[in-house]
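Weekly modeling sync, notes
Attendees: AB, CL, MP (scribe)

Item 1: holo prediction request
CL wants a bound-state model with zinc ion before deciding which constructs to order. AB pointed out that an apo prediction alone won't tell us much about the pocket. Agreed to run with the ligand included and paste results into these notes for async review.

Input as submitted:
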Amino acid sequence: MDKYLLSILVCPLCKGSLVYHKPAQELICRFDRLAYPIRDQIPIMFEAEARTISLEEYDQLS
Ligand SMILES: [Zn+2]
């Protein structure tokens, strides 16, 4: 995941910054508790493609 790309990406819903979760290849919005998938190095920044992360997963994010 390109660091520059990551730095300019924001959540399409709240416009907040995202956390890159490397093992899962997801970009996570803590505010909305949504995880956006990264497929073939391309972040899929659509709410319809995102999954809601559980509280358990949320707690594991640093
Ligand atoms: Zn958000």
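Recorded for review: The chain is about 20% helix and 25% strand.
Action items: CL to compare against the apo run; MP to circulate these notes.
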